[in-house]
Structures are given as C-alpha cells and as structure tokens.
Write a structure and sequence with these properties.
Blueprint lengths: L1 H5 L8 H16 L5 E5 L7 E6 L8 E6 L8 H4 L3 E2 L4 E3 L3 H20 L8 E6 L10 H8 L4 E4 L9 E5 L1 E10 L3 E2 L10 H13 L9 E9 L5 E2 L2 E10 L2 H12 L9 E10 L6 H16 L6 E4 L4 H7 L4 E3 L5 E2 L7 E3 H17 L4
Helix pairs in contact: 4-10
Amino acid sequence: LLTEIVNFETPGNDKAAVDRLVDYMEAKLKGMGTSSVTRHPQDDVGDFLLAKWNEEAPGKPILAIMHLDTVWPIGTLADRPVTLDSEGRLYGPGAVDMKAGITTLLTAISGQMARDALPERPIWAFFNTDEEIGSKTSTPVIKEVAEGCGLVLVMEPGTSDGSLKTRRKGLASYHIHAKGLASHAGNEPEQGVNAIIELAQQMLKLHKLNDLRNGTSVSVTMVDGGSGGNVIPAAATAFVDTRVLTMQEMERIKTAINDLYPMMPGAELTIEPGHTRPPMEHNQQMQETFARCKAIGEAHGLSVREESVGGGSDGNTTAAMGIPTLDGMGSYGGGLHALHEHVLISSLSHRATLIAAILKDWPAD
C-alpha cells in the first residue's frame, strides 16, 4: 500500500496531480466499510476527503488528520523510484512525509475490521491536500471538522527515533515594505530617500527581537529592492519568518513588528502579515494527553516517547483549539524533504499497533 501511494506524485501546487490520488483514496475508503466518505471540492488545490466509520455510534469522534500532498515536483520518481534496501528502509519522495502515516492508519483500521474488532465509536479521517504549502485553504475546514472531537491524531512522521511531537513552534510571517523616493545616484543623491537604507535599519531592530534561548527566532530570510545601479531606491521589501513556543510570545513579536516606525525623514513603512500557525504548547492538557497515550502503548508492549520540534503542522491548529492532540503518529525514518527520505519498515507495525490500541482504549467521553 505504501509503495502504491508513493507512486502517485502529488506536489501541493498541482491540483490535477493531487486529485489523481484523491480519486484513488476516495474509492479505497468507500471499500473499507466506512459509514460515509465526503469529498470537499476545491478550486486551487486538490479536493479534501472526510471518511467516517461508526458515524452514528455514541461518544466523541477520534479524528485522524493526514495530508496527501508532498514537496516533490512531478518527475522526481523518474530519478528516484521507490526502493527497499537490505536494512529495512523504504526510500521514495513523500514516503515518510506523510504517506507512511496514511498507510499505518488505514492498516490499523482494516486490521481491526478483519478481526471484527473495530471499536464501536465514531472514527473519522480527514485528508487535506495543501499542508506542505501552508494549509491556508484547509485550515477553516479542519477547524470545522475537529470541533467537538475528543482526540486528534496527526499522522505526521514521528522523530527519527519514533518520538511523538508534543511541542511545536508557532510561526508567523510578514512582508515589511519600505517606501522612499527615487533620485539620480550621481547627480542628486541628496534628493532621494533610500528605501534600502531604511529597510536595513528596520532589519537591525527585527534582529534584536530574537530570544533563541527561549525558543524565539525572528529571521529576515529574503530581501528585494532597488530599480537600477544608478538610482536611489524608492522601494524595498523584506520577508520575515518568526517562530515562537507560546501564544504570549507570538503576541509580543506581533506587537513589536506592527509598532515599527520609519527611521529616515520622508520614508514610509507598511507591515503586511502573512501565513500564521499558532504554537502547539506543551501545556497541562498536552502533558495529560501524552501520559494517557504512553500508558496505553505500554499496556500493549510499546515504548512511547515525546520530543519538541521547530516545524509546524495541522496539529498546531487543533491543539490551539483546546482539543487533545497527538502529533507525530505516523511512521518514522529520516530525510524529510531531503533526497534520502525514507521510512523504517519496522515502524509501520509499531505505529499501526499504537493507533489500534488508542482507537480501542481511549476514553469515549
């Protein structure tokens, strides 16, 4: 199953390509004893799918969230086809991030159904298609679907040693536009207002917002400006990436950036907010959720560990909603977004067992 779905190339910015896997998954889910499979058509990204088992059963649903898109462009498989080495590693674009997570969830559910042991509780699975490009379109749908669920399982890969991800940084991006006044750099430089110099002074202010020891990074990652080598630049723009561990810190950084003011006479500043994901905080609810998962795993002979990571996921959204969330529930291996991306085959059965145990033993209230 994993090889089959990795062989669908699904870059998030290619709707037609992603929808080919959506078609396959829709048909497969309808053949897996689901109560319903709903397709959410999209204009700009691949369609979303929501599958439900035991739709009318009592109790709060357990919701699994997965993404069908990858970071890899069409043609990657021609250069790097799916391969399995002698040490139990399966290589392929998107294999660990996160088609192995899809594989383990479906295997856990189908395995329970084959033994007539699927718990009599609502089990939902949501598949989006834009996670690798920021989940901008799917986030409102995820919020709507997750509302009222008792637990969310995010099928992102675990860390390289299989740890779940119980803390993720929040992220917010900004474009900062500086406007100046053009003039001839040779004849009348004093008549101009240099937007690049204005922006450079703002970047120094931004750099001072860093607090790396406490998990806050404010990084100017791209800069664009100027119109010619002999022209005082009238415009310049910086892209700013910010990462934080808490909502309180996110608000501090947001306020500081919005409070920036021009340093040069005649200059103007515009702050344009971009993509935002709230942090997945390691709060009391997260600690209690992980402790319960760990106890369930140990009861079935599984060791379950936790770790903090810097990148975000759709789990940031559900955790910030106050819904118990377990992230990194997919299989694990290494090389996310890298040429050596691979899945440890042994992790497939480990995670499928843990998922089945959670579906069986998690409280229904």
